[in-house]
């Protein structure tokens, strides 16, 4: 399988049986289906606009309360927040629609987003809007007659060798790569995770190839 970036503005029209999606902070998502492996970069909407938002917030705080200038500054800040929100939602809608268009079944992990927001990764997790993305997949799957399969958040997708099934319990969150001690396969943790998610869908009787 080839590894390349998918163009989310022009989804393919060949319907595949199953795709597996691994969401993360290095890439927004890594997707595998019958046609290949695709990396989706983070739009980083909030992080890209952060400097401007801080500048507008600082300008607002300097204005006298109740003044016309303060109201103008407040509107400028609100417009910038709305721009960030619209840009993020546009990305999530286009990506979820492209995935739904191209696949009959979508397998994704049921992430503990609230728990992740209580860690040092709170800001990038919040900017990613993983929970919103999964909700978009859910209602679009319902609309277009697709099946969304949520895998339990405790499923060790990164720790299972996708070749022999060995579970590498020593894998830490900081480890990006690991080698299976049984079959010797060298794994990128993210690629290994979404291949395992893809296999979850393919093992279902209604999607298993004959």
Describe this structure in words.
With 210 residues, the chain is α/β, with parallel strands linked by helices. It has one domain (3-153). The protein is built from six helices and eight strands; from the N terminus they run E-E-E-E-H-H-E-H-H-H-E-E-E-H. It has helices at 45-62, 68-102, 113-116, 122-128, 130-144, 189-202, and strands spanning 3-5, 16-23, 29-33, 36-40, 103-109, 147-151, 177-179, 186-188. The strands form two sheets. Strands 1-4-3-2-5-6 form a six-stranded mixed beta sheet. It has a two-stranded antiparallel sheet with strand order 7-8. Helix 1 (45-62) runs antiparallel to helix 2 (68-102) and helix 2 (68-102) crosses helix 5. Residues 1-14 have low confidence and may be disordered.
Produce the secondary structure layout.
Elements: E1 3-5, E2 16-23, E3 29-33, E4 36-40, H1 45-62, H2 68-102, E5 103-109, H3 113-116, H4 122-128, H5 130-144, E6 147-151, E7 177-179, E8 186-188, H6 189-202
Parallel strand pairs: 1-4, 2-5, 5-6
Antiparallel strand pairs: 2-3, 3-4, 7-8
Helix pairs in contact: 1-2, 2-5
């Amino acid at each position: 399988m080839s590894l390349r970036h998918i163009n989310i503005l022009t989804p393919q029209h060949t319907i595949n049986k199953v795709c597996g999606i691994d969401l993360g902070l290095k890439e927004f998502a890594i997707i595998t289906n019958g046609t290949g492996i695709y990396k989706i970069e983070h739009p980083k909407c909030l992080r890209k606009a952060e400097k401007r938002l801080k500048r507008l917030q600082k300008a607002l705080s300097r204005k006298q309360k109740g003044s016309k200038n303060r109201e103008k500054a407040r509107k400028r800040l609100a417009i910038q927040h709305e721009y960030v929100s619209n840009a993020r939602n546009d990305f999530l809608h286009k990506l979820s629609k492209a995935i739904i268009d191209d696949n009959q079944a979508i397998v994704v992990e049921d992430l503990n987003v609230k728990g992740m927001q209580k860690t040092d990764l709170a800001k990038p997790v919040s900017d990613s809007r993983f929970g919103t993305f999964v909700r978009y997949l859910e209602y679009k799957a319902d609309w277009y007659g697709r099946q969304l399969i949520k895998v339990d958040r405790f499923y060790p997708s990164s720790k299972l060798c996708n070749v022999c099934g060995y579970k590498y319990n020593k894998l830490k969150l900081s480890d990006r790569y690991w080698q299976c001690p049984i079959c010797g396969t060298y794994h990128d943790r993210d690629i290994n995770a979404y291949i395992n998610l893809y296999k979850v869908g393919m093992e279902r009787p209604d999607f298993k190839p004959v």
